[in-house]
Design brief:
By secondary structure, the protein is of the alpha/beta class. It contains 13 helices and twelve strands. The strands form three sheets. It has a seven-stranded parallel β-sheet, sandwiched between helices. The protein is globular, with a radius of gyration of 19 Å.
Length: about 325
């Protein structure tokens, strides 16, 4: 693959930072949108050339996209304005635009109950009201294939593992660990039988590079490598913390008070089960990251716990 100049949004984040690091390891150069001086410094420290601006800075984003060989959006998956600016900058160029969504678009509000439904890319669905905006944006990205853009949407599931950029930590698993450390009781919502597909961050980054190289215009891919119930994840966290306190259930209202409604209903209380067979077949994606439970009990999250990263904050 030829060496590319890639413009990124979200390059200081968990996904974006890891993707940027992997791009540079492969010999590509990366520029990243930076909202503040602090973000500029973070990007420079990781070898990324900052472009100062907001997601809403239309001309800044448009011009940065236009001057790049490819664009990756790892910022707000629900922001239609940054996507519009990127598509304007790339229109008619045939350049690649890889947009990040997430498998919560097919999530439910099961409050800990099991669902047998598994989604493939061609499985029809209508998003719940909370996810309409995200789905509308990803559909707009895919439609850009008709405007001369090699547009691709990647839809990862629950991501775990150590990130390779400025922000090394994920969201769902650390939130569960912090609650368990602070309260002394690992918790799942309701019965905890709801299931999420999962994927290691290193395998996610590999999928981005393969999408840049091989994905056709208008392509959509789920990204997963296995699945786990939330109860089994919380049981693993209990073992991480010594196994002295077994997991307990709490209500959706208690979970909302702890994590907020989006996380409680979708990220930690709902089902989101998808298949990445298409990415394996068409992109040649071969995930090989460490198992989720290994990362919790013996890997990244164990190291973070030992370093005090999940200790309750004073004040």
């Amino acid at each position: 693959m030829q060496k590319l100049k890639v413009f990124m949004t979200g390059a200081s984040g968990y996904i974006g930072g890891t993707v940027a690091a992997r791009l540079m390891q492969a010999g590509h150069s990366v520029t990243g949108l930076a909202r503040t001086q602090g973000t500029e410094a973070k990007l420079r420290a990781h070898g990324i050339d900052p472009v100062r601006g907001e997601l809403s800075s239309h001309s800044v984003v448009r011009n940065a996209a236009r001057s790049a060989d490819a664009v990756i959006n790892c910022a707000n998956a629900e922001d239609p304005f940054v996507v519009a600016a990127i598509m304007e900058g790339l229109a008619g160029s045939g350049k690649a635009f890889v947009h990040t969504s997430g498998s919560s678009v097919v999530g439910d509000k099961a409050a800990g109950k099991f669902s047998p439904r598994i989604y493939h890319e061609d499985t029809p669905f209508e998003p719940l009201p909370e996810k309409i905006q995200r789905v509308a944006v990803q559909r707009a990205v895919l439609a850009a294939a008709g405007q001369g853009v090699r547009s691709v949407v990647l839809c990862p599931s629950l991501i775990y593992g150590r990130g390779g950029g400025a922000n090394p930590d994920s969201i769902q698993v650390p939130n569960l660990i912090r609650q368990a450390v602070r309260s002394g009781i690992p918790r799942h919502i309701g019965e905890g039988e709801n299931i999420w597909s999962t994927v290691h961050i290193d395998d996610v980054a590999d999928a981005y590079l393969l999408a840049l190289e091989r994905a056709l215009a208008g392509s959509f891919y789920y990204i997963e490598n296995g699945e786990a119930s939330l109860k089994s994840i919380v049981q693993s966290i209990a073992r991480l913390l010594g196994g002295n306190q077994p997991p307990q259930s709490w209500s959706i209202d208690e979970a909302i008070a702890e994590w907020g409604p989006q996380a409680a209903w979708f990220s930690l209380g709902g089902n989101s089960r998808v298949s990445a067979d298409k990415a394996r077949k068409l992109l040649g994606w071969k995930p090989a990251g460490a198992d989720l439970f290994h990362e919790i009990e013996h890997g990244w999250y164990r190291r973070q716990l030992d370093a005090g990263a999940y200790a309750p904050r004073s004040g």
